[in-house]
Amino acid sequence: MPKRSRTPPTYDQRVQHITIDSAALGVKKSFYIYVPPELKNGQRAQAVYMLRGHEREWINPTEDATRGGTNAIDVYQRLRSAGRIGPLVLVFPGLSSDDNSVPSVLMNMRAPELADHVAGIGRGQFADYFYNELVPYIDTFFPSDGGRRGMIGFSLGGAMAAKAAAERPDLFASAAAFDGTFLYAQDNGRSVKRADGVIANPMFNAAFGQPRDFAHLAANSPANLVLNGDAAKLASVTWLISFGPREIEPWGSNYFRGMHLLRCLRARGIANAIDPAAIADRAHSWNTADAFLELVLPIIAGARKEATANPGAKAPG
Questions:
Q1: DSSP 3-state helix, strand, coil percentages of the chain (rounded to 5)?
Q2: For 26, 30, 80, 300, which has the most beta carbons within 10 A of its beta carbon?
Q3: 285-306: b or e for each residue (b if 16 or more CB lie within 10 Å)?
Q4: Which DSSP string do the residues of 113-138 spell out, in sequence order?
Q5: Alpha helix (H) residue ranges in the chain
């Protein structure tokens, strides 16, 4: 049975805070989950995973000053009240150190021992934890219907959402990313651009290795996974990629990184399901991330129905 935290941080009374023992990580790991109260016994709903880094970020109404006291649950409930979506199980995983200083980037970390100074990393096998432990745990103990799931991410969470969908399209029917921190694929997807300030950032030492293991980076980079993956399986995913405007690069948006991922998708004959500039205010902020969520959640809720209706969909061309 789920182990509820005895003293969970109170960001929102509508969610549950759950802690599980991870064999892949060798430590306890927590997540928040929202279960629609209208679900009756035996009823199940599609699960949507919402990624950023720490499990609190999508539900913390004061995560930054732009948010105005609301969070992702409020966005969901507005859409639900308007009849634009059915019930969804919302999952907010912790995919970083407990203090959020060391990101996993949803990798089996190259050098987790470099994060021994912080709690919550352990063996660092975050991909194994997420795919093999957390997803089955949600399907077992909560009313997730076990079908292909939705995935939404902001910033580093956007990179993780795209990575998960490209790596495991059998598990995820959609990948929505706002201002994702995507690396640049080179050499037809066999390598990544080495002269990249993101790669050099020391907060990634545990994930990327020190010195950097560029083969490991290429094997885990969303753009590289798109270029190297099975085109038909990738085309079964609904891709929803948006990013901030070019004029506020490099500190205010990930415009060039987002454009790069779109080029990689187009190279495989895969279209983006939204206009990247569909949101008027595209600053790299939680207010914008919530606006992105309001735009894409109805599409995510419908994406799996389309995939189910046409399970043999192939990449065009």
A1: 35, 15, 45
A2: 300
A3: bbebbbbbbbbbbebbbbbbee
A4: GGGTTSTT-TT-BHHHIIIIIIHHHH
A5: 72-81, 126-128, 135-141, 156-167, 197-200, 205-208, 214-220, 222-228, 231-235, 255-267, 286-309
3-class secondary structure, 191? strand
Q: CB of 109 within 8 A of CB of 102? A: no
Please name the CATH architecture into which domain 11-309 falls: 3-Layer(aba) Sandwich (3.40)
- The answer, as to whether pTM is greater than 0.70, is yes
Contact 102, 121 (CB under 8 A): yes
At a CB cut-off of 8 Å and minimum separation 6, what does 47 contact?
88, 89, 90, 91, 138, 139, 142, 144, 145, 149, 150
Comparing CA positions, the residue from 60, 14, 19 lying closest to residue 38 is: 14
Cis peptide bond prior to 250, omega within 30° of 0: yes
Q: Mean pLDDT per 10-residue run, the chain (317 residues)?
A: 61 96 98 97 96 98 95 98 98 98 99 98 99 98 94 99 98 97 98 98 99 98 99 97 94 96 98 91 93 97 56 31
